[in-house]
Amino acid sequence: MQRSLIKHQFIGAFILILIGCESQKSKHYRMLEFGKDYTAAWNSGDPYKMASFYAEDGTLTVNNGTPAIGREQLAETARSYMEAFPDMHLTMDSLVADRNTYRYHWTFTGTNSGTGGTGNKVNFSGFERWTMNDEGLVQKSIGTYDDDEYSKQLNGN
């Protein structure tokens, strides 16, 4: 009897582990799709599409600068890149789960041919660390890239 009980407990625990693994796989797959769709939104040329991936009061801080707070400011941040680099193209390099956050690694390419632009091409990489809300939207994003390298490319140095 005891042996049968242990066997059933083992089987039950094994099933719970499998369910947990499938749940994690499903969550990771959803986040990969989210990352692909977020990338497509950046490449759409519509800043409001990018902002729609954030909570209404979501934030984006880039290189320790002033955070964009809320979808209107988020859209303005996206618009500034889209206007400065009309041919911009963002590529998702990877999406890495890290405890309760995700690191969205990207590469940005484009020509600074917008109003007052330098005409120079840039190709730089960085990442955003996302904290998601309960609705599956970005609540907080901390972005970083090598600003010195970006400035060299932008200014042709």
Polypeptide structure, described:
The protein is of the alpha+beta class. The chain has a single domain, classed as Nuclear Transport Factor 2, Chain: A, CATH 3.10.450.50. Helices cover 45% and strands 33% of the residues. It is built from 4 helices and 6 strands. It has a 6-stranded mixed sheet with strand order 2-1-6-5-4-3. The longest helix has 42 residues, at 2-43. The relative contact order is 0.13.
Major sheet strand order: 2-1-6-5-4-3
DSSP strand content: 25-35%
Cα(first) to Cα(last) distance is 78 Å
Report the principal-axis shape: globular
Structural class: alpha+beta
- Overall pLDDT metric: 89
Number of discrete helical segments: 4
Give the SSE string.
Answer: HHEEHEEEEH
DSSP strand count: 6
The CATH class label is: Alpha Beta
What can be said about the biggest beta sheet?
6 strands, mixed
Tally of distinct domains: 1
CATH architecture: Roll
Rg on CA atoms, Å: 21 Å
What is the helix fraction of residues, given as a range? Answer: 40-55%
CATH fold-type name: Nuclear Transport Factor 2, Chain: A
Instruction: Detail the poorly predicted runs.
Output: none
Q: In summary, what is this structure?
A:
This protein is α+β, with helices and mostly antiparallel strands and 157 residues long. Helix content is 45%, strand content 33%.
Main features:
157 residues; alpha+beta; Nuclear Transport Factor 2, Chain: A; 6-stranded mixed β-sheet; 6 strands; globular
Blueprint of the fold:
Layout lengths: L1 H42 L3 H5 L2 E9 L5 E2 H15 L4 E10 L2 E11 L9 E12 L5 E8 L1 H9 L2
Parallel strand pairs: 1-6
Antiparallel strand pairs: 1-2, 3-4, 4-5, 5-6
